[in-house]
Amino acid sequence: MPGPVPATAPLPPAAPWRLDLKVAAVWALLAGLSAAAVIPYMAQTMPERFARIPVSLPVLAAAQGLQALAVIGLMALLGLRMGHRVGLGSPLLARWLGGPRVAAAALRPWHSLAVGVLAALAVIGLSLLVDPLMPEPVHPPLDAGAGQSALYGFLASFYGGIAEELQLRLFLMTLLLWIVARIGKRTPRPGTYWGAIVAAALLFGAGHLQAAAQVWGLDAVVVVRTVLLNAVAGLAFGWLYWKRGLEMAVLAHFGADIVLHVVSPLLAAGA
Predict the structure, then answer these.
(1) Residue 186 phi/psi, 5° resolution?
(2) Is residue 4 part of a domain?
């Protein structure tokens, strides 16, 4: 996917709706499925909270999946529409659905996956430095065994890779750049793209504070650890979205989550 056009270029015209509707519909379906799939992982990591929910997990998963399908699907459509103005989007899926030609090899999927793995290793390294300062868990996760934890982590990785990227990169990051572009009547400069990447990454980290508070409570160390570790990965995903499109950010995020939530528990259990 080509990078943004020079900052002196005027805004491109709006693209037709039909292709964006088809792309958004596919992402909406995937977001709904991933939102349902993450429920077992959430129930394991936040048992105290889920014990108070008066419905069964299958019913909760179905409800969350339907909500994500509608809400994240709308966010995806808006992100795609705004993305035409700032050179961002979902080029590979659009190509498969009849859009402009793009070579998958040119997007370097294996390199993008490697970026995700390296981001996960950076998160693990930083957590080793910060974790000795962390408080004792207030509500520790359930001990479901390494195999089951890895399975739940595998299912949750689809939510991270798909739903979170649709919300944080395709919608939020694109929205920030679209606002700048509309105000300036020009495609934003590269520095503005980096600003949007950082802002989305920090909000990505802040979005995990609720889950962290459920496990540890909130203090300065918990807040810094949660925001920092997630923001580091978010910077990598944002850069990939900017340079190669949404699919490569999704692939990298999924790969990072596999390392963090599948490989790490299995290795820890065997240590």
Answers:
(1) -145, 155
(2) no
Q: What is the DSSP string of 131-154?
A: GGGSPPPSSPPP---HHHHHHHHH
Q: In angstroms, rounded to a whole number, what is the distance separating the alpha carbons of residues 1 and 245?
A: 6
What pLDDT digit, counting tens, does each position of 70-93 carry?
999 999 999 999 999 999 999 999
For residue 1, is pLDDT > 70?
A: no
Report d(CA 205, CA 244) in Å as an integer: 22
Report which of 209, 175, 225 is spatially closest to residue 195, judged by C-alpha positions.
175
Distance between start and end Cα atoms, the chain: 42
Q: Is 1 part of a structural domain of the chain?
A: no
Amino acid sitting at position 83: G
- Residue whose pair of structure tokens reads 């795609």 in the numeric block: 80
Q: Is 5 part of a structural domain of the chain?
A: no
Question: What is the rounded CA–CA span in Å between residue 246 and residue 227?
Answer: 22
Query: How many residues are present in the chain?
Result: 271
Supply the range of the domain harboring residue 25: 17-270
| Across 211-235, average pLDDT | 92
Domains contained in the chain, number: 1
Residue 202 lies in a domain: yes
Query: What are 139's two structure tokens?
Result: 């509500």
Give CA torsion, residues 31, 36, 40, 46, to 10 deg: 70
Query: Residue 154: exposed, middle, or buried by beta-carbon count in 10 A (0-12, 13-18, 19+)?
Result: middle
Residue 105 burial by Cβ neighbours in a 10 Å radius (0-12, 13-18, 19+): exposed
CA 47 – CA 54 distance, rounded (Å): 13
CA 109 to each of CA 45, 105, 112, 114, 157: distance values in angstroms, whole numbers, following the listed order: 31, 7, 5, 9, 17
